[in-house]
Design goal:
It is a single chain. The strands form two sheets. This protein has a seven-stranded mixed β-sheet, with helices on both faces. A three-stranded mixed β-sheet has the order 6-8-9. About 35% of the residues are buried. Helix 1 crosses helix 3 and helix 5 packs across helix 6. The chain is of the alpha/beta class. The protein starts with 9 loop residues before the first strand and ends with a helix.
């Protein structure tokens, strides 16, 4: 299937819709009839967006249409029914060689991991269910703004699987080992109020105020210079990775020197 150009500002592929307005991109999971359940085509579309998005886009908002953010994997992935024109669902991975199977899952993960690139700020606007792959998509973003009806659930273990779309690391960093282990092993629902209390959510707002709250956050993150935001996100990611204090201080010095050189270059041009 030909891939539409993102340069035009709009992409609709794999149940994913992209709209670009200046420095803001909005990605919408657009399969409301199945609560935005995800398939390999979803992940391919997300990966394509990450690979092709214009570098002038500074903020990416991820949201779901209809009643939910995303209810997780499309049920056909478990039944062996054809999905996205390919037979077998998850079971088809077993027919591949170990190297091919690993590469296949890595390609799925790539639809999520680019959202953590400090080159831009990413915001999940979550309402209704964010289950399994939906929860992991929200975790891939820098910020999570929740409507009061939002519910997170890491459902994979209850289905005999494991979370494999990059969600375990940010979950542990956000809530700690014990809480993350309990949430994953029990597959319980975590409501918006608890999410805010334990650090999963940056804010919780009434359902009819979600769009306005996200717009306000987008405006706030666009105020600082782009280079300063990118460098700061990279610094925070470095600190979260557990580096020692001396290493972090060195990383901060290097980042500040890059900013000062950038200022000097701008002054020389004026």
């Amino acid at each position: 299937m030909p891939v539409p150009s993102i340069d035009a500002g709009v992409l609709e592929r794999g149940g994913v819709r992209l709209a670009i307005s200046g420095p803001r991109a909005t990605i919408t999971l657009d399969r409301p009839d199945v609560l935005n359940a995800q398939t390999p085509a979803t992940w391919q579309a997300l990966r394509h967006i990450g690979e092709q998005l214009d570098p002038d886009v500074r903020v990416v908002v991820v949201r779901g249409s209809g009643r939910a953010f995303s209810a997780g994997l499309d049920r056909r992935m478990f039944t062996g029914e054809p999905v996205d024109g390919e037979p077998g669902g998850l079971g088809a991975i077993l027919a591949l060689s170990p190297e091919e199977a690993d590469a296949r899952i890595a390609s799925y993960q790539a639809g999520f991991t680019w959202l953590r690139d400090p080159a831009r700020v990413t915001i999940a606007a979550v309402h209704g269910h964010a289950i399994g792959a939906g929860f992991q998509l929200a975790l891939a973003c820098d910020f999570r703004v929740l409507a009061e009806d939002a519910q997170f659930c890491m459902a994979e273990t209850g289905l005999g699987l494991v979370p494999d779309l990059g969600g375990t690391l940010p979950l542990v960093r956000l809530v700690g080992y014990s809480r993350a282990a309990e949430m994953c092993v029990t597959s319980r629902r975590v409501k918006a109020e608890e999410s805010l209390r334990i650090g999963l959510a940056n804010s919780v707002v009434p359902a009819d105020g979600l769009d306005a709250a996200v717009d306000e956050l987008v405006a706030a993150v666009l105020k600082p210079m782009a280079g300063a935001v990118t460098e700061t996100l990279a610094l925070i990611a470095s600190a979260a990775s557990g580096v020692d204090a001396d290493t972090q201080l060195a990383v901060e010095r290097a980042a500040q020197l890059r900013r000062l050189r950038s200022f000097a270059a701008l002054s020389a041009q004026s």
